[in-house]
Each structure stands twice: as C-alpha cells, then as structure tokens.
Amino acid sequence: MELTLLGTGAPDGLPRHGCPCASCAAAVGEEARAATSLLVDGALLIDLTPGAAFAAARAGYSLVGVRQVLLSHPHAGPAVEFPAGLPAPVRVPDGRRLSLISGHRVRAVALDSPGTGYEVTGPDGTRLLYLPPGGAPAGLPDPAEPYDMALLDVLGRPDALAALRASGAVGATTDVLAVHLDHTAPPGRELHRRLATAGARAVPDGQTLIVGEYHAVPDLPRRTLVLGGARSGKSLEAERRLAAFPDVLYVATGGTRDGDPEWAARVKAHRERRPGSWRTTETCDLAPLLAEEGPPLLIDCLALWLTDAMDSVGAWDDDTWAHGGEQALRERVSALVAAVRTTSRTVVAVSNEVGSGVVPATASGRRFRDELGRLNAAFADECEHVLLVVAGQPLPLRG
Fold first, then answer.
1. Ordered strands of the 297-300 beta sheet
2. Which residues are catalytic?
3. How far apart are CA 235 and CA 387, in angstroms?
4. Kind plus residue range of the DSSP H or E element containing 209
C-alpha cells in the first residue's frame, strides 16, 4: 500500500497566516506544512483540504483516480474548494466498514473527541491507522493486532500513542508518523528530536511512503539523566520523554512535608501534569525498583535522594562525617550506581545541576554541592543519554 502525504500540518497549516511566533518563522522549506491530507494508492483520499489537487500534482500524482473521499473531523481552517470530478466527501459512522472497488477495506474508529479515525487495510494486507487532530481511540481491543503504520497527533496527544502501545496496536515494528503539526510544536531540529524520544518521526509534505516498509527510528535510550537548574524545565523534559509510553512508574523522592503549603503546591502541580495512566510511588529506596522487571521509571529527583541519604548517615555533622559518615554515603551512592548499571528497565532520572552558582556559605552546603556533583557524574557515566536543560532548552551532552 502506497501512501502520499499531501499535507502533515494542523488544519490552519504551518506557518499560520500572519503569526509571528518562532515556530511559524522557522517553518520554511521542508518544515512548512499544509493541513494534513492522505492519498492512499491514488484511490482513497482522507481529509479534503485546501489545495489538495495542487499538492497531489506537486508530488507527481493526480486525484482523477480517487474513488472515495473520507472526512475525519469538522473542517475549521481556510475554505475548501471542491475539485471537479471527486466523489462527494463523507464521514463514516463509528464502527462502519467500507469495501472499495480498489480492494481497500476501511473501518471507522470511534474517538474520545469529535471526529472519526480510520483503519485502512490495503489489497496487500498491510494496515494503517489514521487519527484526526486531538483525537485518541476509544474502546481499543486488548490485545490488538499491531498496525504497520500509525498517523496521529503525537505531540498534541502523546497519551493516544501510549494507549495504542498499551493495547498492542502500536508495536516495535509500527512506523509512527506525526501529523497535524501546529505552531505549538518546537521549530527545526528540536521537533525531530522530541518526536524521536516518542519513537515517532515526521516527514515533509508530498512524500510518498510504502506502508509496511521498515524505517529506523531511534529507540528510547535505556537510561537517561536530565540535568538542569531551578525552574529550568528539567522535570517537564523528563516527563515528555515518557509521555507516549504506558504504565510509567513515577518515583518521587521528595516525600511530603507537613505544614509546608508551598511544597504541597509544587507536588500538586507535578502530579496534575502527569498522564492519568502513570502510577506514583514515594520512596528513596531506588535499588529494589531498579532490580525489578517492569515498566519505565521516572525518578524525580536525585538531589532529594541525596538529601535523604545524607540525612541517614549524619553527613551534616562534621564529626559524624569524618568518623564514618563519608564512607557510609560513598557506599550508598555506589549501590545506587551499580543498580543503574545492571537495570533492565527504562529509566529517566532528573537531577539538579548546582556547580555553576555561587559557592555555598556553609560547610554543609558546600558538602551537599560537592556530593551532588559526584553523584551526577557517576550516574551520568551509566547513562546512554545525558541532557542539560537551560531555559527550557534541552542540550544533549551524550547520546
């Protein structure tokens, strides 16, 4: 089955007319995107958008052979001119099946938002799933047979991709393509980096793909360390890296602090930002979790883990530190690093980068700064991917 992407953008396109934002300014050449529209084997058109006939001509195709036009969502963009000779576009009721004279079979997929998804099976038996902007499937079978290709709003609805993975509809060999790309997406190479962390990719408008053909997408690294200063966006970056994966276990090392409303507000903000499918555990006992088989771990954060470890060994007292406390802390850190080295789980850990500020005024503050620097360095040595987040911008240090 051959698929031509006549457009890969949001209904308003990218760049948006008259918008001065950074993403729109960078959306030139291959990064400029018309509203998403798919041409399947020259016979099936999904989502009739402005300029579809011209887009097909630029890609070397004609719409003359189209036998069915399907709509997936209420059109909210620029006015659409209906090309002469095309069949009348229709939206298929949820669950209804169509058999086309071209040999394609179509099933309408119910969504959790206004619109209709489409499952298309080609004459050769390959299968693709297309979801409209902002949509996720409702009532997926479990287990589901994996699709050869899935096209959806990866950045806008990463939970949709997570649900598809949880059901088995998206597997290790499924080619996941991001469509409906809007100016809320980051510009340039950052878009493709962020998609790669979700196991997805984006292609330029006009590209023709063979459904079922293998395309290498970077796998999520087994171990990732995300560093950053206060309010740098490091936790958000860590959460993004796992947002498209189901059953994540969020490991909160900070615990609770009675009588501290500001801390409670921070915890609440983090909790509300996480996908509803994630589970949370509050613990600093990380080694057993790392030794277990299970879903991905998001550890936030190592600085609070170190605070607990230093509390436990009496590291804040100079005399205790000199008479066994330092050695006890070294053993705890070594045990954690060894657990990271041997874990089979996917791990994304967050930590503070504290070495670039002023020298702390107290001996205990300097001790914490030094020990966190050592912990970060040792943890990073065991990670395939290390990032430093500055002003919300992730800078790869490794991987």
1. 279-282, 249-252, 297-300, 347-352, 223-228, 385-390, 393-398
2. 270
3. 12
4. strand 208-210
